[in-house]
Design goal:
The protein is built from five helices and no strands. With 97 residues, it is mainly alpha-helical. The chain has one domain. The longest helix is centred in the first third of the chain and has 30 residues. The radius of gyration is 15 Å and the shape is elongated. The C terminus is likely disordered.
Amino acid sequence: MDERIYQIAEQIVEIHQKAYEVYLPLVEDVCSRTVSEAELSHLLDYLLDFACDEKILGLYKKVCRRYLYVYPKCIRFYIEAYREMWEDEGECLEHDL
């Protein structure tokens, strides 16, 4: 049973790495231009699913920082969504923005 848990953990790490490789160029693209709020929300929805991973969280923060003053209500929504989904009490994504 311990071996099976280890294999599952390895698979999760691999999935997060693949997600990072897929989302990195998308984040770079979105941060290099001004996108619609709908396109921004679409990307943040997908990143949020993987934001438990430190590298993906870095991408999430990068997008939030880039669009904080362009779409403040949207970014506020995604900061709160992150908090509800992933953060322990006492930590704050917003302080890192």
